[in-house]
Inverse folding.
């Protein structure tokens, strides 16, 4: 066996395992997902029949799916609105502040916490009986603001979005901070000499400098908003009724509660396509400009 | 170069050995479609390990069953039984569904009555198991005439209250729905206690109302299956509509504390146990929970759900049959599993099981010895009404429209009107029947 053959064999051999694992645990389930999305499988019985695109059509026609997507949209919008705030916080933390290191780690803390723990913390905070949030509002003389945080269908989604913001904003801030630190300092110095004020520097140096990070955060936002699951599932199980259900919660319930694996698989395929489509759209919208 | 060549050879060999080792291993037997391969030796004196899956919220009960089934090895030294337990029925259901999909169900598995239709293809008929003859309910839950699982217990669905509060506020135990509402309102007006502890945040605690009231009001044990025969079984004039109107009357009376939807089941239980709330409805299984937390049953009593509009009709008591055990069709040792079930439900073993469960008996000749239950039976006049789940047609339709009556209860607590619910359900039900 010559050396080249041995080299190829080694390369092939070492690649065989990761590629095999990838095919087994990623490609094969994905193909199976596509297959199940075309069937009426109930998840239990050994047999199923192919129903064509019926599940996809049903998903489009079902009100619950759209309601759930509407809730996902709220997560997306609220996180989008918060991006400028996150950038501002990052700019602030990037200054030479007293104890800025401490603040940086504090900002990042919520992201490290386990999702289940976060859900329990906030379930307690929002509790209508002996709950600290309502007690605090009462003590501050703001009884008018006391709400049924998790039980009023008009309020519950905002309460859950607030938890999501609390949990993920810190992570975004750290990403922005990393972006900010990569912007060369001499650009700011040159701008100062040219007479630029703080806003000009922010608008014409900082923002273009962290454009890549903004793109990443936007992508994470789209993906995160479409996939949001643990917070509503753990805190309200999508309730009261179905008012805080999200696309993923709806999918899980279709599969495990209502034995409709076919529909659930089609929803999962649609989720995948939606994430791909939105991400492509986003990179197209942001892409062309900054490259020059 | 020589060294590199050797290194190359060495790496190639190592890799080949790893790959070959990975690919070989224990050869799975043909058709490993189910159960675990538990046989240690074949032929005479074959050792068999049976897997049994169950769930229970009570840790002590899980420990009891786990230890008890080990005793079977002294009866049949060749068979050992190992329990796998779950803390909640929803986690359990999810796990066995996944296993059913993979053809890897445990040999003996626990089921709820309303899962039987879904799992009927995964179970074997148990009509030839001797203990079925003495089971009071097995035949009631037969599917297509075959007993697919044996119910272990039955128990009444009760409305619990604190006698001390009733005494303090001079209240009588209600036996009709208007009286029930009067009692709740009186407690509310007094202001000291939350009248009814509803853990509405979790959806399921409203089952005594949203799930059971239409059923019992229909006076037809096969009510759920009969729903599947109608196009519009939810509109005005139906038991569903009437029951939901009654429920709405209660939910809208403000008798469930400041925010029933913001309180979970555990918290609602605690409110009741700590006497911050006066009344709550639940199955008999709540009594051990209460005793565990309160330390005694001195201030606990119960009455049947007073669903009827007046005293002209007899008061029926919803009896729930639960903890069904079946043998999976993919089990490699069905005969051993059946023999185990004969032992498990033999009067001596079953008696211990029943005492540990603190529920009512499902077998002739074995009486439950739960003092709370005995005094409840002695003090109240009622007729038994057995909960029978919907058949396969009902399950199919309700899954198709994603019918969750407990979530509907939450929506009602949040203010949704019965008319809107009925209209919506009728429309979806009609369409689902058309698409069937």
């Amino acid at each position: 066996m010559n050396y080249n053959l041995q080299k190829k064999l080694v390369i092939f051999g070492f690649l065989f395992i990761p590629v095999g694992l990838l095919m087994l645990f990623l490609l094969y389930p994905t193909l199976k997902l596509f297959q199940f999305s075309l069937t009426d499988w109930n998840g239990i019985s050994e047999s199923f029949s192919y129903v064509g695109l019926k599940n996809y059509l049903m998903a489009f026609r079902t009100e619950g799916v759209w309601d759930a997507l509407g809730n996902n949209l709220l997560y997306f919008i609220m996180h989008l609105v918060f991006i400028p705030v996150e950038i501002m916080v990052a700019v602030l933390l990037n200054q030479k502040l007293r104890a800025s290191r401490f603040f940086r780690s504090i900002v990042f803390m919520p992201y490290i916490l386990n999702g289940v723990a976060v859900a329990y913390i906030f379930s307690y905070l929002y509790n209508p009986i002996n709950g600290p949030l309502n007690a605090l509002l009462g003590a501050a003389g703001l009884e008018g603001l006391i709400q049924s945080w998790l039980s009023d269908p008009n309020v519950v989604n905002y309460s859950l979005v607030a938890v999501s913001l609390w949990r993920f904003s810190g992570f975004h801030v750290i990403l922005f901070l990393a972006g900010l630190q990569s912007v060369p300092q001499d650009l700011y110095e040159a701008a100062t000499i040219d007479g630029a004020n703080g806003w000009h520097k922010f608008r014409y140096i900082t923002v273009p400098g962290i454009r890549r990070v903004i793109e990443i955060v936007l992508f994470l936002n789209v993906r995160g908003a479409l996939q949001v699951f643990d917070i509503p599932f753990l805190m309200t199980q999508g309730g009261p009724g179905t008012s805080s259900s999200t696309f993923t919660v709806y999918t899980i319930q279709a599969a495990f509660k209502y034995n409709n694996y076919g529909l659930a698989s089609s929803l999962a395929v649609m989720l995948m396509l939606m994430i791909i489509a939105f991400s492509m759209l986003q990179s197209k919208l942001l892409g062309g400009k900054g490259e020059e | 170069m020589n060294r590199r060549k050797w290194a190359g050879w060495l790496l190639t060999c190592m890799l080949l050995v790893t790959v070959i080792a990975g690919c070989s291993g224990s050869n799975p037997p043909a058709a490993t479609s189910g159960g675990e391969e538990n046989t240690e030796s074949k032929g005479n004196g074959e050792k068999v390990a049976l897997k049994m899956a169950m769930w229970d919220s009570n840790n002590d009960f899980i420990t009891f069953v786990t230890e008890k089934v080990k005793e079977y090895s002294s009866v049949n030294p060749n068979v050992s039984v190992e329990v796998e337990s779950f803390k909640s029925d929803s986690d359990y259901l999810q796990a066995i569904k996944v296993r059913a999909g993979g053809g890897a169900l445990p040999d003996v598995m626990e089921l709820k009555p309303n899962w039987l239709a879904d799992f009927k293809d995964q179970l074997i008929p148990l009509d030839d198991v001797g203990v079925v003859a003495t089971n009071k309910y097995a035949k009631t839950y037969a599917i297509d005439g075959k007993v697919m699982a044996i119910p272990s217990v039955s128990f009444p669905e009760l409305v619990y209250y604190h006698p001390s509060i009733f005494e303090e506020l001079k209240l009588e135990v209600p036996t009709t729905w208007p009286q029930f509402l009067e009692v709740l309102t009186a407690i509310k007006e007094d202001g000291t206690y939350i009248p009814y502890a509803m853990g509405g945040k979790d959806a399921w605690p409203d089952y005594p109302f949203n799930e059971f009231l239409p059923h019992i009001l229909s006076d037809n044990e096969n009510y759920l299956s009969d729903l599947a025969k109608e196009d519009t079984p939810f509109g005005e004039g139906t038991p569903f509509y009437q029951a939901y109107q009654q429920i709405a009357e209660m939910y809208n009376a403000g008798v469930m504390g400041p925010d029933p939807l913001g309180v979970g089941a555990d918290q609602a239980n605690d409110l009741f146990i700590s006497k911050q709330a006066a009344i709550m409805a639940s199955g008999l299984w709540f009594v051990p929970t209460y005793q565990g937390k309160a330390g005694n049953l001195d201030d606990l009593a119960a009455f049947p759900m007073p669903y009827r509009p007046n005293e002209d009709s007899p008061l029926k008591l919803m009896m729930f049959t639960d903890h069904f055990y079946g043998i999976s069709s993919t089990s490699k040792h069905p005969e051993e599993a059946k023999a185990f079930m004969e032992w498990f439900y033999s009067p001596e073993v079953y008696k211990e099981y029943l005492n540990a469960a603190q529920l009512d008996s499902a077998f002739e000749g074995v009486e439950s010895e739960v003092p709370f239950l005995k005094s409840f039976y002695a003090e109240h006049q009622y007729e038994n009404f057995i909960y029978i789940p919907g058949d396969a047609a009902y399950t199919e339709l309700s899954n198709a429209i994603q019918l969750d009556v407990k979530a509907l209860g939450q929506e009602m607590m949040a203010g949704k009107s019965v008319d809107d619910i009925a209209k919506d359900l009728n429309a979806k039900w009609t369409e689902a029947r058309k698409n069937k």
